[in-house]
Design a protein that fits this description.
Length: 284
């Protein structure tokens, strides 16, 4: 199945990034959010992002216009009907996602594929909110979507081979590299990345080394482009803590216990770059 029209639900950071990634490849996009203001904000973000690519001469003005022409916006779910695949990229909240998915399931033709960009909720569980668990799959894009090459394709318990093949083909058409992952908490990347970041907080709290030296160690010793503590500040310490809590709860294994220092920073409101202070200070 070749996908030519993609619906995207949620025009926030990820939804607008996914819409842009599709549109620059000439794939038609129907981008939905709950309010006109949210849709407009998403579209303005896409336009700004395309402008940056234009400035860097990665695309031409004609390519920018062509990409924008591929994107239709709406606040009405019925506009999604022509899509062969709808990707849910709304707020990370189980209840919100269940509601959206049930609504989409009732509205869309039975053959339409459904995907979710969730970072932490079980694909099998979300699929159960629909009557098409075989045509349901996880597509975990990375932020910022236009720049990041990876898509984790997560197979729920009942995801069919045909669904897996169709979204793998789409991810490849978007210029991304898909990897196939069985439904499991944290998938592959967060399961490995977040415990490493968490360990960096333990190392910091035990006074083994300074934050700067921990980050320099991992950059220079492992060739990582950014140290784990600086990365935590970028991701948001609250997001890091939430993912560790999900891993800890889902696997019931003490190796995933969140570092008390990470908890302390979050309790203090030191959430990273977005609050101006995390491990490091970003005050101007
Ligand atoms: P965001 O808050 O930037 O955007 C979410 C959007 O969903 C908002 O615009 C909101 O108005 C909209 N929304 C909420 N309820 C809706 C509804 N009923 N119908 C339509 N739209 C609705 O969030 P985000 O960072 O873009 O995250 C979206 C999803 O992607 C989440 O599941 C998140 O876990 C996942 N994710 C995020 C990242 C990241 O780095 N931000 C990375 C990978 C995956």
């Amino acid at each position: 199945m070749s996908i030519q029209t993609v619906g995207v639900v949620g025009a926030g950071t990820m939804g607008s990034g996914i819409a842009q990634a599709c549109a620059v490849k000439g794939i038609r996009v129907i981008l939905i959010d709950i309010s006109q203001a949210a849709v407009d904000k998403g579209l303005a973000g896409i336009s700004k992002s395309l402008d940056r690519l234009l400035t860097k001469e990665k695309i031409t003005a004609a390519q920018k216009d062509a990409a924008l022409a591929c994107i239709q916006t709406s606040t009405d779910y019925a506009a999604l009907k022509p899509a062969q695949l709808v990707i849910e990229a709304a707020t990370e909240n189980h209840e919100i996602k269940n509601k959206i998915l049930a609504q989409l399931d009732a509205l869309l033709a039975p053959e339409t594929l459904l995907a979710t960009n969730t970072s932490s909720i079980s694909i099998t569980q979300l699929a159960a909110a629909t009557s098409r668990p075989d045509r349901f799959v996880g597509m975990h894009f990375f932020n910022p979507v236009p720049m990041m090459a990876l898509v984790e394709i997560i197979r729920g318990l009942q995801t069919s081979d045909a669904t897996h093949a169709a979204v793998t083909e789409l991810a490849t058409a978007l210029g991304k590299t898909p990897i196939t992952v069985r439904n499991s908490s944290g998938f592959v990347v967060n399961r490995i990345l977040l415990p490493m970041i968490n360990e960096a907080f333990f190392v910091l709290s035990e006074g083994v080394a300074s934050a700067e030296d921990i980050d320099a160690g991992m950059k220079l010793g492992c060739n990582h482009p950014i140290g784990p503590l600086a990365l935590a500040d970028m991701i948001g310490l609250d997001v890091c803590l939430a993912i560790m809590e999900v891993l800890h709860q889902q696997f019931g294994d003490g190796k995933y216990r969140p570092s008390p220092l990470l908890r302390e920073y979050v309790a203090a409101g030191r959430l990273g770059r977005k609050t101006g202070q995390g491990v490091y200070s970003y005050a101007k």
